[in-house]
Design a protein that fits this description.
InterPro entries: NAD(P)-bd_dom_sf (IPR036291), Sc_DH/Rdtase_CS (IPR020904), SDR_fam (IPR002347). Belongs to the short-chain dehydrogenases/reductases (SDR) family. The chain is of the alpha/beta class. The chain has a single domain, classed as NAD(P)-binding Rossmann-like Domain (Rossmann fold). It is 41% helix and 15% strand. The chain contains six helices and seven strands. The protein has helices at 13-23, 36-49, 65-76, 103-129, 150-170, 203-214; strands spanning 4-8, 28-33, 55-59, 83-86, 133-137, 176-182, 224-227. A seven-stranded parallel sheet has the order 3-2-1-4-5-6-7, with helices on both faces. Helix 3 (65-76) packs parallel to helix 4 and helix 4 packs parallel to helix 5 (150-170). The longest helix is centred in the middle third of the chain and has 27 residues, at 103-129. The N and C termini lie far apart (43 Å).
Length: 234
């Protein structure tokens, strides 16, 4: 029986790399993003590369609870995903004491609440069948305080805490839960920075770590994966 993976924010960077890595293993693919044009391009590219895989791509702004719920309802018509990767995120630099009003709310809603609501939409079905895997895409900013991290860091610390709680709750149901904590990875958010690409991690390396964690035996789980550039943080 074919398995399916749901990756939020899958049009570029780490999200896209994870979709492609699991597509190589014959997973059906489900994703979402806010940009309809980028979603259409992604779906066409994935279907061309992996013609045997089902590809579902939905436009959704996961910073809004009603759109998370609508997205989950659409997916539920065909799937309860075997794997969920909460990858949607936004980074707005700033310090807690002087960042613009609204930054905190936007980043908490996008980076944390979206994952909370999406998990709640599917986890009871996973519990009934006693199988599934949930990955949360955190950040090293969720374990170490950085200048100019502000509300982004707060949201990622909260994401790590939520994932730890979820891991404890779901142990008895044979559902695995893993926090992925990447350092600087070369994605669209870093384009234009005056640093060589070689200084960054590759999105494909993060995707390889996700696949490796997923591929362990039922007796083992990787609770956290911290991945940093070889030369250290940027």
């Amino acid at each position: 029986m074919r398995k399916s993976i749901l990756v939020t924010g899958g049009t570029k960077g780490i999200g896209r790399a994870i979709l492609e890595r699991f597509a190589q293993e014959d997973f059906d693919l489900i994703t979402c993003a806010r940009n309809e044009k980028e979603l259409a391009t992604l779906a066409t590219d994935l279907q061309s590369k992996f013609p045997k895989n089902k590809v579902l791509a939905f436009r959704a702004d996961l910073s809004r609870k009603d759109e998370v719920e609508r997205f989950a309802k659409e997916i539920s018509k065909e799937f309860t995903p075997d794997v969920i990767v909460n990858n949607t995120g936004v980074f707005l630099p700033g310090a807690i004491h002087d960042e613009p009003d609204g930054n905190f709310e936007l980043m908490m809603q996008t980076n944390l609440y979206s994952a909370y609501y999406l998990i709640r939409a599917f986890v009871k079905d996973m519990m009934k069948r006693k199988s599934g895997y949930i990955f949360s895409m955190g950040s090293i900013a969720g374990t170490t305080a950085y200048p100019n991290g502000g509300s982004y860091a707060i949201s990622k610390w909260a994401m790590l805490g939520m994932t730890k709680c979820l891991r404890e709750e779901l142990k008895p149901f044979d559902i695995k839960v893993t926090s992925i904590l990447p350092g600087a990875t070369y994605t669209a958010s870093w384009e234009g920075v005056d640093l060589p690409i070689e200084r960054f991690m590759k999105a494909e390396d993060v995707a390889a770590c996700v696949w490796s964690a997923y591929n362990l035996s039922p007796q083992s789980v990787v609770e956290e994966i911290t991945i940093r550039p070889q030369l250290g943080d940027i």
